[in-house]
Amino acid sequence: MSRESFWTADPAELLRVGEGFELADVDPQSHPGFDGGKAEAKAALAEGADILAELQEQLFAGSRMGGHKRRILLVLQAMDTGGKGGIVKHVMGAVDPQGVQLAAFKKPTEEELDHDFLWRISKETPAPGMIGVFDRSHYEDVLIGRVRELAPPAEIERRYDAINEFERGQVANGTTVIKVMLHISADEQKRRLEERLERPDKHWKFNPGDIDERLLAPAYRDAFQLVFERTATADAPWFVVPADHKWYARLAVQHLLIDALEAMELSWPAADFDVAEQQARLAAS
Amino acid sequence: MSRESFWTADPAELLRVGEGFELADVDPQSHPGFDGGKAEAKAALAEGADILAELQEQLFAGSRMGGHKRRILLVLQAMDTGGKGGIVKHVMGAVDPQGVQLAAFKKPTEEELDHDFLWRISKETPAPGMIGVFDRSHYEDVLIGRVRELAPPAEIERRYDAINEFERGQVANGTTVIKVMLHISADEQKRRLEERLERPDKHWKFNPGDIDERLLAPAYRDAFQLVFERTATADAPWFVVPADHKWYARLAVQHLLIDALEAMELSWPAADFDVAEQQARLAAS
Cα separation of A117 and A107, whole Å? Predict the structure, then answer.
């Protein structure tokens, strides 16, 4: 059975945030479009890894020697334990590290706070030929920024438009922007936090502040809903990925990347030198 | 058979550049200390990947929450086609991308040339908990720098001491520095360049300048020999890895990394919070 045979529909279509989208309608336990379970997903992920790796190499190769300026920016957002790290490790980890530009955005430093919120973001946008991955992003500034009132309301409001403008600029410069929210249920989050507390080798991943954030989950869901309403554009779409099943979330994000790369219709770049001439030079060397 | 059973001696000992080392004495086709062939090496590499991945996670974990400042800097140098990219892809690719900080140094830009040669290097040194990988490095400034006379002789001379001082600073700040030269024969290089010219999907990796560099191989070998004499220090040792067999080179570098991490005697960091208290908070949430 090939990877495609388990997909009954294109997840990009099923998961894209469209008109009238309501986060509350998404079941975090569902696995839209994938007609299989954990074992099938594991096999499909391995198969997809090879496809993704070759497409990534073509993307990279085509950008060399003054080639195209295409690139991908994958934005990952989620509540704590949502599985961002697992996407980076298991989906991006299958790709040549030389083609991946990863940026993890933590609590802003004093220097970062002294600049516009997009200052630190702009610096990390991917170079041509790269797959950029944002583990958290400028969306924190309208998520935790809103929930915890880290900026005045007018400033928060301003940011949605600034984000759309910023992303439009990325797209205009050859970037395919893919924004993903990994959506987990309150119960699943509890289980994952419990595991971190039970296992000494996971303690370092736990922070008491995670529970403070968890108590604010309803406010975060409202803030996410607003993000979707204000920033889900045709150019830079949002995808809400049900993520209680890690195997589904990883497979779905991998599929989104493959889709985006296939849409570029990449091919190996032609030589910008005379092959026979170089073969003769090499033979004589 | 376990991974270790194929190693008859520690490659770190066999490959380290010591007193009286002569590059000319190293056989690029050899596989010191490894009593197996390609198939055994592939199995050993897969086994080593799991070990390396866990050690890397401990290194990373231990650096969080105001922990230790330890980190690794792996410097990779080689002639064209030497296999640096393969090390990054197949050795580092098995590690969580979140724990790897990769920097590829190309021909310096005008801005970089306007600064001391270590300016662009310093900026890319790894953060605590990370494995930093330099694909080419400050050594280019005493390799191509010397061979192509890109700087006055006195400036080239000055750089060896500057490099030693720079690396001493890294070590003093908790970095384990591992410097690797992948050593391939002229014949093997010819085969690899031929392959790049034969396969259209490899043309993008070929540059006519590669043949110009190839013609200068004797001068580069002299420049490498000088690098070893001037910068192989106890704190920041050089390892010359025979690399005609890609399987050996990858396995040897993986082993050097595992050795370095095991020498740190890492363990999972203790919680800096009261576990039972947090479990109670979580249960109530």
Answer: 12
> Which stretches does DSSP call E strand in chain A?
71-78, 100-104, 131-135, 175-183, 238-242
Compare all CA atoms of chain B with the CA of A210 and give the residue at the minimum distance: B282
A207 vs B contacts (CB less than 8 Å): 273
CA angle B226, B232, B237 (to 5 degrees): 145
Per-residue pLDDT of chain A (285 residues; tens, 9 = 90+): 466 678 899 999 999 999 999 999 999 999 999 999 999 999 999 999 999 999 999 999 999 877 899 999 999 999 999 999 999 999 999 999 999 999 999 999 999 999 999 999 999 999 999 999 999 999 999 999 999 999 999 999 999 999 999 999 999 999 999 999 999 999 999 999 999 999 999 999 999 999 999 999 999 999 999 999 999 999 999 999 999 999 999 999 999 999 999 999 999 999 999 999 999 999 999
Chain B residues within 8 A of A205 when measuring between CB atoms: 61
Domain A10-31+52-284 belongs to what architecture?
3-Layer(aba) Sandwich (3.40)
The class (CATH top level) of B3-284 is alpha beta
A85 contacts in chain B (CB < 8 Å):
96, 98
Residue A108 structure tokens: 């802003």
Helix (H) or strand (E) holding B74: strand B71-78
Q: Give Rg (Cα) of chain B.
A: 20
Q: Take residue A5 and report the two structure tokens written for it.
A: 């045979």
Substitution target in A202, A273, A285 with the highest count of B β-carbons within 10 Å is: A285
Residues of chain A neighbouring B271 (CB-CB closer than 8 A): 200, 203-204, 206
Widest CA span of chain B, in angstroms?
A: 72
Nearest-by-Cβ selection for A104 from B98, B135, B214: B98
A136 CB neighbour count, 10 Å cutoff: 18
Structure-token pair, residue A229: 């309403």
Output the six-digit token pair for B29. Answer: 């086709």
- The residues, ordered by sequence, that sit 6+ positions from B4 with a Cβ below 8 Å of its Cβ are none
CA B246 remoteness from chain centre: 15
Q: How far is CA A236 from the centre of its chain?
A: 12
Domain ranges for chain A, please list them: 10-31+52-284
- Token pair 């301003």 in the structure block, residue: A158
CB contact under 8 A, A273 and B89: no
The CA-atom distances, in angstroms, between B16 and each of B26, B41, B47, B237, B261 are: 12, 21, 24, 7, 17
Q: SS3 of B175, please?
A: strand
ipTM: 0.92
